[in-house]
From TrEMBL:
Subunit composition and interactions: Homodimer.
Record EC number: 2.6.1.37
Function (record text): Involved in phosphonate degradation.
InterPro entries reported for this sequence: Aminotrans_V_dom (IPR000192), NH2EtPonate_pyrv_transaminase (IPR012703), PyrdxlP-dep_Trfase (IPR015424), PyrdxlP-dep_Trfase_major (IPR015421), PyrdxlP-dep_Trfase_small (IPR015422), SP_NH2Trfase/AEP_transaminase (IPR024169)
The protein's name in its UniProt record: 2-aminoethylphosphonate--pyruvate transaminase
Record-annotated Aminotransferase class V domain positions: 18-298
Length: 368
């Protein structure tokens, strides 16, 4: 039996997506170059913008972090200053990038169980007019909360700041209007809500903002402008492309469309989450976040109030039954996470919840 991944990436993918990666593909093959072009044209449309309207798409080899680092290390020029909004591990990852690349930056932190407060962002930007760029995580996968990117984007637009959004775990599973949220750089990857296989990140960028990054990169391989320039001039990646992952991704995009686009996918993920919420509540599990700020991508559950609970054993028992969940990453409390995304359906979530119930019962019987 195949394993089902209830993780935030890589995700469970369809057989047909994996099958699309079965044929060797030369990187200069016309079929491959056409596929890259199709993907670059179709991605911004998912965010309600297009190339004609001045938005460009850059594909970057590597995992999602490579895409974020490419944007962070290419957009902040010598005289720029980045404000990093952080309320979880992924915000902190951007802070680390700033340190490594020695980028002028300021960090505005919020508690892990609180969303980024737009009013605080405004105050910070008004106090520090030298700030030129703002970076924010949309779906903070650490906990599963959604930060209010539209409200923050509106403030950035009003004050003339470049807005960078890590929408890694949300793009494709949540409606995002890139223009309405005033986003200049949005980053996501092949193996999240579009449901492709791992291999590359993508950046959807306002062309005007992208052109300004020319010559600013801190590394050769993650140079956002040059990567775009290469794709524009001959349709090719500068270095070996993730050919098979690209072929699988185009199939994944077709399947997203067949499902009914982002609204239908979002509805399925929400149904998964509802099924999970109800089932876990019935088993006595408590969620880490308040329901108002909990998104539908991934849910954090506190360890049960039972000293004999051991996450490792729990994880292994579930994995033995072919259900893969995710450990927690919280700084102040113990929690584990269950993803609602990927090729999983409410009946799969019900089966997971049932397995959790059986494992908990067995444990309770053993500890008596
Ligand atoms: C998955 C994810 C990333 C990228 O992680 P990789 O392991 O590099 O793919 C970045 N930000 C968020 C919010 C994510 O969920």
């Amino acid at each position: 039996m195949k394993k089902l991944l209830f993780t935030p990436g890589p995700l469970t993918t369809s057989h047909s997506v994996k099958a699309a990666a079965m044929e060797d593909m030369g990187s200069r093959d016309a079929a491959f170059v056409t596929t890259v072009k199709e993907i670059r044209e179709a991605l911004p449309v998912l965010g309600h913008v297009s190339k004609e309207e001045g938005y460009e798409t850059v594909l970057m080899q590597g995992s999602g972090t490579f895409g974020v680092e490419s944007v962070i290390s290419s957009t902040i020029g010598e005289n720029d200053h980045l404000l990093v909004l952080s309320n979880g591990a992924y915000g902190e990852r951007i802070v680390k990038m700033c340190a490594i690349h020695k980028l002028p930056h300021t960090v505005l932190r919020f508690e892990e169980d609180e969303i980024t407060d737009p009013a605080a962002v405004r105050r910070q930007l008004e106090q520090a007019p030298h700030i030129t760029h703002v970076a924010c995580i949309h779906s903070e996968t650490t906990t599963g909360l959604f930060n209010p990117i539209e409200a923050i984007g509106a403030i950035c637009a009003e004050l003339g700041k470049t807005f960078i959004v890590d929408a890694m775990s949300s793009f494709g599973g949540v409606e995002i209007d890139i223009r309405k949220a005033h986003i200049q750089f949005l980053v996501s990857s092949s193996n999240k809500c579009i449901e492709g296989i791992p291999g590359f990140a993508f950046v959807i960028a306002e062309k005007v903002a992208l052109l300004k990054t020319k010559g600013q990169a801190r590394s050769l391989s993650l140079d956002l402008y040059e990567q775009w320039n290469g794709l524009e001039t001959n349709g090719q990646f500068r270095f070996t492309p993730p050919t098979l992952s690209i072929m699988a991704f185009r199939q994944a995009m077709r399947e997203l469309e067949e499902e009914g686009g982002i609204p239908a996918r979002e509805a399925r993920y929400r149904k998964n989450k509802e099924t999970l919420d109800k089932g876990m509540e019935a088993l006595g599990f408590v969620q880490y976040l308040r329901p108002e700020i909990q998104g539908h991508i991934i849910t954090s559950f506190l360890y049960p109030n039972d000293p004999s609970f051991q996450f490792e054993a729990f994880y292994q028992a579930l994995s033995d039954r072919n259900f893969v969940i995710y450990p927690g990453k919280l700084s102040k409390t113990n929690a584990f996470r269950i993803g609602n995304i990927g090729q999983i359906f409410p009946e799969d979530v019900s089966a997971l919840v049932q397995a959790i119930g059986e494992i908990m019962q067995k444990e309770a019987a053993l500890s008596k």
